[in-house]
Design goal:
This protein is mainly α. It contains 31 helices and five strands. It has a five-stranded mixed sheet with strand order 2-1-3-5-4.
Length: 701
């Protein structure tokens, strides 16, 4: 116990000394790199200013009732999902198996999985413009799954987990105090989850692609956005409400509903950690695991931005939990079939959210099932079938649309991939393991840096996890510790050895690390001094987490939770996009190149990501008359060029950009009388960063 105290103090001193990211200074000035400790001290001293910023600093209109519609729609979806989860648990004979907290969370997770899968299948069938058919399909699904559940409606029920807890009841009076301690962060997570999006990847594809699918009425590969070929299981929670919302801003409301549900997965992760930790370890184990997750700034950042890494982090834990139950309690023989199918559905949903889940979740969890049940082939087959059913719509869609079931990965493996060889190589180069200054991908320094990243070197790693997780390594129950260590090792190896080492790709390991930290907390809990140390450590971790997520210049998280949604959406809309929204008349379309984060653009748009063919490519070798005819045929009356983004993509070590887009091409089209600059330009007039052109009519000068 005293080893933990000393280790925690040493870790805290090091943790507070880690420099944090900060906006780049002007050329010639020394970069300012505050430490975590500096930011926490500043946050405490400037707490009134932090709270003021929640309200927009007094410079923006406030709004709270404008969240009501989004909240109600999300609430209806969650209630419907809860019912579907209840029905499916009845089918799996697990209705009374889980405890109160993990049971609620798993019902929601199962139901949201079914809702996502159904929306994907119906969307791939081209029914997004037929809301009545979707209502009927979901109603049939609801009745079909509910037929087994209704037989148990009036049956006396007592969950196995609750029954076991009654036998070995532990005092939990202070749980309410911990709920109060975690409440500020929990409410903050909910508040930022509902705010309009602003993160680049979210504006470029996480929410832009569902918006485009909603417009065309079908889920299919979009030739202008390579990311539309990825599985988008989490984004279906934004697409579904878009189908039923009318009006010019229905797509935005639907996107906010989906973003809110995605953001709530941080709290669902904490809830599942509490229930799983309490069942597998004990009260203190569940409590510490849940609080550790809430205090991780990375998870809060995921909630606030709408990125989906926190979603597949949750499903990583949800897929692992059933096999941990079987490994640690083989007496549950009658429930193993249901647990195997449940684990498969959760692993398949993780795969439906992000491709890397195949290596991080699907295969390792399947390996644990083999270890747990040996040669029970029937059970293993059921698990594999559940995984396959969950992911199959996305793989089949890609195979049909692109010739590559895992598009845009493995382009060299599938000769039927629709991309050119150059585009496949461009994608592979952009996502390969990065080189250091010496041109090495796997050096000792890179290895050390990679090892230290999950141990707190990452600026937004949580404070609570590492010392408790190390303590958990010495827990007596090896059947619980070893599987978690193996899964954590697999996560790290895939991240460091096979990926482009973005830190947020380690996020799926966070819940597993939190569960291991819960094991360490349970090891300390029998001692009075240990419980005192835990209270101090957990409380400090929550405080530090709350302070860090409010450091907006560093974490770049928008905390204006009380500002009106409309004002926030406008503040996140670039000036160029706002200009086009105000000036493009109905019926006219925009051709955009360079900027692909066009979620807020309202007129019809032809655009491309840096990995797709340029929208200007067809105009390169045309005559003046051909160019005019081509633009007129597509009703393109405006062209938006973002040279700053183009130069960024073309910079050394970046993704690259189609070579067809040049300033000379636009100068030529100006001289031909096809284009004229509009009123909006950004940057040096001689070499502007952003230019918007009007397309002149063919009869013009």
């Amino acid at each position: 116990m005293w080893i933990f105290v000393v280790g925690a103090v040493v870790y805290a001193l090091w943790y507070f000394s880690v420099p944090m990211p900060w906006p780049a200074p002007p050329p010639g000035e020394t970069p300012f790199l505050p430490t975590r400790g500096t930011l926490v001290q500043t946050g405490l001293l400037l707490l009134p200013e932090t709270i003021s910023f929640w309200f927009g600093g007094g410079d923006m209109p406030l709004g709270l009732l404008d969240r009501l519609g989004v909240t109600l729609i999300a609430g209806v979806m969650l209630l419907f999902s809860y019912a579907l989860g209840e029905f499916l648990l009845a089918r799996l004979k697990l209705l009374d198996f889980f405890g109160r907290v993990d049971g609620i969370v798993l019902r929601l997770a199962i139901g949201l999985t079914v809702l996502s899968w159904s929306t994907a299948v119906l969307g791939m069938c081209g029914l997004l413009h037929r809301p009545l058919s979707i209502v009927l399909s979901l109603a049939i699904l609801f009745v079909t799954l509910g037929s087994a559940w209704k037989k148990q409606l009036f049956a006396p029920r007592e969950s196995e987990a609750d029954a076991e807890e009654a036998e070995t009841k532990q005092p939990e009076g202070e749980s309410w105090w911990w709920l109060l301690a975690a409440a500020p962060l929990c409410l903050f997570i909910v508040g930022v989850s509902i705010l309009p999006p602003y993160e680049y990847d979210v504006l470029e594809y996480h929410l832009l692609v569902p918006k485009e699918w909603h417009i065309i009425g079908q889920i299919r590969m979009l030739p202008n956005n390579v990311y539309s070929g990825m599985p988008m299981g989490a984004e279906m929670w934004a697409l579904l409400p878009m189908i039923f919302l009318t009006g010019p801003q229905g797509w935005l409301t639907g996107a906010l509903v989906g973003k809110l549900i995605i953001g709530l997965f941080t709290l669902l992760t904490a809830g599942l950690l509490y229930g799983a930790g309490k069942r597998l370890i004990g009260v203190w184990g569940g409590r510490a695991a849940a609080l550790a997750a809430i205090a991780v700034p990375w998870l809060t950042y995921q909630s606030g931005t709408g990125l989906v890494d926190g979603v597949w982090a949750f499903f990583t834990l949800a897929a692992t939990y059933p096999v941990l139950i079987v490994l640690n309690d083989p007496s549950k023989e009658e429930h193993r079939d249901g647990l195997a199918i449940l684990s498969g559905l959760m692993a398949g949903m993780a795969f439906s959210v992000k491709y890397p889940a195949l290596l991080v979740v699907v295969l390792p969890v399947f390996g644990l099932w083999i270890f747990a049940v040996r040669t029970d082939w029937r059970l293993l087959v059921m698990h594999v079938v559940a995984v396959t059913v969950a992911i199959s719509p996305w793989l089949m869609r890609n195979a049909i649309d692109t010739g590559n079931p895992v598009f845009p990965l493995a382009g060299n493996v599938f000769p039927t991939d629709v991309r050119s060889e150059d585009q496949i190589q461009q994608w592979n180069r952009a996502h390969q393991v990065p080189k250091n200054a010496d041109g090495n991908r796997y050096s000792i320094n890179q290895l050390f840096s990679g090892i230290m990243t999950p141990f707190g070197r990452s600026p937004w790693a949580g404070m609570i996890i590492v010392p408790l997780a190390i303590c958990g390594l010495f827990y007596h129950d090896r059947k619980l510790v070893i599987p978690l260590v193996v899964l954590l090792a697999v996560c790290w190896i895939v991240w460091w050895g096979l990926s482009h080492r973005l830190e947020r790709f380690l996020i799926p390991a966070i819940p597993l690390g939190c569960l291991l930290a819960g094991i360490g907390a349970q090891k300390l809990a029998p001692f009075v001094a240990g419980r005192v140390a835990l209270r101090i450590w957990l409380g400090l971790g929550l405080l530090v987490g709350f302070m860090l997520v409010n450091q907006t210049q560093s974490i770049k998280l928008d905390p204006r939770v009380f500002v009106s949604l409309d004002a926030l959406a406008k503040s996140h809309t670039s000036e160029a996009v706002a200009f086009l929204n105000e000036n493009v008349p109905p019926g006219d379309a925009v051709l955009a190149t360079g900027d692909a984060a066009l979620f807020y653009l309202q007129p019809p748009v032809f655009y491309h990501t840096c990995f797709n063919d340029s929208t200007m490519q067809q105009l390169v070798d045309m005559t003046k008359q051909q160019r005019q005819a081509h633009l007129a045929e597509a009703n393109i009356a405006w062209i938006y060029v973002h040279w700053g983004e183009i130069e960024r993509f073309r910079s050394p070590g970046n993704y690259g950009f189609p070579s067809d887009v040049t300033r000379e091409l636009f100068a030529q089209m100006e001289s031909q009388g096809i284009l004229e600059p509009a009123e909006y330009q950004l940057g040096n007039p001689e070499n502007p960063t952003v230019v918007i052109y009007r397309v002149l009519p063919a009869s013009g000068p």
